Amino acid sequence: MGTTSSTLTQYDIEEVQEHCNHTFSQQEIASLYQRFCQLDRNGGGFIAADEFLSVPEFAVNPLSQRLLRMLDGLNFKEFVAFLSTFSSRATLQQKIEFIFKVYDSSGNGKVTFDDMLNVLRDLTGQFISEQQREEVLTQVLEEAGYNKKSLLVLSDFVKILGNPDLKMEVEVPVD
Amino acid sequence: MANAPDNKLTSSSSELDLDRPNLEDYLPSGSMQEPRGKLRLRDLLDISPTLTEAAGAIVDDSFTRCFKSNPPEPWNWNVYLFPLWCLGVVIRYGILFPTRVLVLTLGWIIFLSSFIPVHFLLKGNDKLRKKLERCLVELICSFFVASWTGVVKYHGPRPSRRPKQVFVANHTSMIDFIVLEQMTAFAVIMQKHPGWVGLLQSTILESVGCIWFNRTEAKDREIVARKLRDHVQGADNNPLLIFPEGTCVNNHYTVMFKKGAFELGCTVCPIAIKYNKIFVDAFWNSKKQSFTMHLLQLMTSWAVVCDVWYLEPQTLKPGETPIEFAERVRDIISLRAGLKKVPWDGYLKYSRPSPKHREQKQQIFADSVLRRLEEK
């Protein structure tokens, strides 16, 4: 599935569906392909950071830079796998894993105090002082039984965030 | 009205978004129930609402929808319909197109052979010259419209020449200007184009009065605002037509109106234009095709059918800001033409949104964290 042609064969759709563990229906994949081609304006087979940022709703999101690092250079199959976390068919475990990946910028499976502080900074900007941010994070960490030097792994995240009403779903428009 | 020469995205200058209507009222907000209770680790780590918004924007967003040309469904796949469609192609390209080219060429010959003498020989007699040039411009626009078999239905009272009034319309393609111009010789404010269009702009459109702007220049706004004000004061000038969206939109949506036309202290006369897509999609997607290709596409289609509504003139209400005025007129036009409103600035095609919007989100979250820290 090299360069983005405007049609997708049945074989391609099935391959993508396999890759994302059937979290999307075939119609949704076809729809996502149209969207992919729409965003990939220069037809390079992947969506560049610039092209993502040309969507104003994405550009104003506080976590856009972080997500861009994860979205960089993805081809269509990987793009669908990335979005599969947001499907209604995705499991809670998958969603928590995704959140963990957003925090774990070094990719070594451990989230440090600094990682959490960085994300908190993205979300709050200049509206909380750096010192206050550190204090708040330290305080809630200690109340939850961790400390500043703790290294959180995926199972910690599952314990903290594992709540059935964690809502992280997006609907793919299908005409 | 045309694509910028390069795709460099620069962040828009802050002056462009003072007094914007509150974007938060329009943007979809996920699970926005106010979180209550003492702040816990889970509340800081749970970034799911923000991630959901980001993913939602990746999957579909209201801004890109405004500029999507919707191609008609291909219908020539049936053994009976296919030969009909082929016949249609033959007629359109073989008969209609050459006829139209002929009509247009004839129109240009008549126009140029009248315009050039009038322009140079009547240099002394300005009033008569202007009157004749106006009629000739209306004439060549009629020829253009005929060359697409344009069927335009005008509703409402024809614009009258009065000082201190401007006309605003929604924008789909540069042909909007031609469709309106064949009825009334407007002066217009336009982005200067390269090529043959630019040549036409600098020669013929000068005679009806035109104001040039350069959307990539930030300082340009003040110069243009002054030119606008000067133009509407002059009693002898042609009525001014402005497209406040600042860019071509696909005739299903309207983007936010720029306030420039609404702070001149004049009456604003809204005009709504709606094209009938059954015949041809008149949206000029300037990123996808040049204006020449766009015209050729129109000339090889069956017809350009549209409705033009001249709506009731509006003035600034007491206590209303120019931005509110602009939004009110946008409401009137969108309602009349059946267009959906989106809260985006058309110039976001060429630049990034200002950091102000992201900061608003950050502030909301920061305030919520600090507030909950107080709760025990």
Automatic annotation (TrEMBL), chain A:
Keywords: Calcium. It comes from Vitis rotundifolia (Muscadine grape). InterPro entries: EF-hand-dom_pair, EF_Hand_1_Ca_BS, EF_hand_dom. One of its GO terms (molecular function) is calcium ion binding. The keyword ATP-binding does not apply. The keyword Manganese does not apply. Residues 27-62, 91-126 form the EF-hand domain. PROSITE patterns: EF_HAND_1, EF_HAND_2. This is EF-hand domain-containing protein.
From TrEMBL, chain B:
The chain crosses the membrane at residues 77-95, 101-122, 134-154. Keywords: Acyltransferase, Lipid biosynthesis, Lipid metabolism, Membrane, Phospholipid biosynthesis, Phospholipid metabolism, Transferase, Transmembrane, Transmembrane helix. GO terms for molecular function: glycerol-3-phosphate O-acyltransferase activity. It holds the Pfam family Acyltransferase. This is Phospholipid/glycerol acyltransferase domain-containing protein. It comes from the Eukaryota. Belongs to the 1-acyl-sn-glycerol-3-phosphate acyltransferase family.
